[in-house]
Amino acid sequence: MSHSERTFIAVKPDGVQRGLTSKILARFEDRGYKLVGIKLIQADEQLLSQHYAEHVGKPFFPKMVSFMMSGPILATVWEGKDVVKQGRVILGATNPLSNAPGTIRGDFGIDLGRNVCHGSDSVESANREISLWFKKEELVQWESNQAKWIY
Ligand code: RTP
Ligand code: MG
């Protein structure tokens, strides 16, 4: 069984500083998604302006960029069936008032800005964001040996 759909999930500076990275990775692993890329990055304004190109010029943009530069970001790429849409479900809604418990944002935050994590909002965004944050050789294609380990 192989699924090529991939998404870009990032733990934002607040999530890294609060020590939530392992919990966030666990939610994707527990759901059955495959980690194919991971690194800690101190993002600069240029990268963030490209990443959030759709928001350049909006009133909240400068504050959002300075928050995203306030510490390292854990950048990850996950692979699996419907991972883009499912990733957004695992993250929770943008509006804190719509966040159900059980989602990352719903469990770990109440703030619209400091919302712990980012997830690509479409397959097109995912492909664009993955190529922005990762070099091709930083993504690892691998197969699980679980069938050989679990009887
Ligand atoms: P993200 O891109 O970070 O995963 O968040 P998202 O898709 O759920 O939300 P999006 O609309 O892409 O907005 C990007 C980030 O901008 C901040 N934001 N502030 N009105 C506001 O002050 C406002 N609206 C959005 C949020 O931190 C959101 O994560
Ligand atoms: Mg977004």
From TrEMBL:
One of its GO terms (cellular component) is cytosol. It is an enzyme of class 2 (transferase). GO terms for molecular function: ATP binding; nucleoside diphosphate kinase activity. The keyword ATP-binding applies. The active site is at residue 118. ATP binds at residues 12, 60, 88, 94, 105, 115. Its cofactor is Mg(2+). NCBIfam families: PRK00668.1. This is Nucleoside diphosphate kinase. It comes from Naumovozyma castellii (Yeast).
